[in-house]
Structure formats: C-alpha cells, structure tokens
Amino acid sequence: VIEMVHHFCRGQSYDNASNMAGKYSGLQAHLKKENPLIHYTPCAAHSLNLVGVNCVDNCCEEVNSFF
Q1: Cβ–Cβ under 8 Å, residues 20 and 27
Q2: Is this model's pTM higher than 0.90 or not?
Q3: Whether the Cβ atoms of residue 50 and residue 21 lie closer than 8 Å to each other
Q4: Are residues 56 and 48 in contact, defined by beta-carbon separation less than 8 angstroms?
Q5: Which of 8, 13, 36, 59 has the most CB atoms at less than 10 Å from its CB?
Q6: How far apart are CA 57 and CA 17, in angstroms?
Q7: Are 41 and 11 in contact (CB under 8 A)?
Q8: Direct distance between the N- and C-terminal alpha carbons of the chain, in angstroms, rounded to an integer
Q9: Would you say 14 and 42 are in contact if contact means Cβ atoms under 8 Å apart?
Q10: Tell me: the pLDDT tens digits for 18-64?
Q11: Where are the domains of the chain?
Q12: Is 13 exposed, middle or buried (0-12, 13-18, 19+ CB in 10 A)?
C-alpha cells in the first residue's frame, strides 16, 4: 500500500473502470472518505474513446444490415 498525503489532494481522474471510479466502493469513494474536498472527473480521453468505439460498432452493424 502506498502512503499518500490526502489533505493536499483536490482532484482525481481515472478511466471509467468501476474499480477506480465506482461511486460506492471504487478508489474515488475511498479517497473521498479521507478528504471530502477531493472531486472526481472521468478522464475525457477515455470517455471520448468509448464514444468512438460505440459509434463504429453501431455504424458497422447498420451497414451490414443494409447490404
């Protein structure tokens, strides 16, 4: 376990994995218990990647069903 000074931390950002970002049992929830001033923001790059992957998957399905 890494010892970390929580009282200086004000923000945290992770990918959208539930073990890190979980509201009730993820790392962000545990850190929020230690310091209520810490705010969680989902990683914009990971979120955008998930949107892109979902769009490509849906477009491929539609093209295949059309032809």
Answers
A1: yes
A2: no
A3: no
A4: no
A5: 13
A6: 20
A7: yes
A8: 55
A9: yes
A10: 767 777 878 888 888 888 888 888 888 888 998 999 888 888 777 77
A11: 11-66
A12: middle
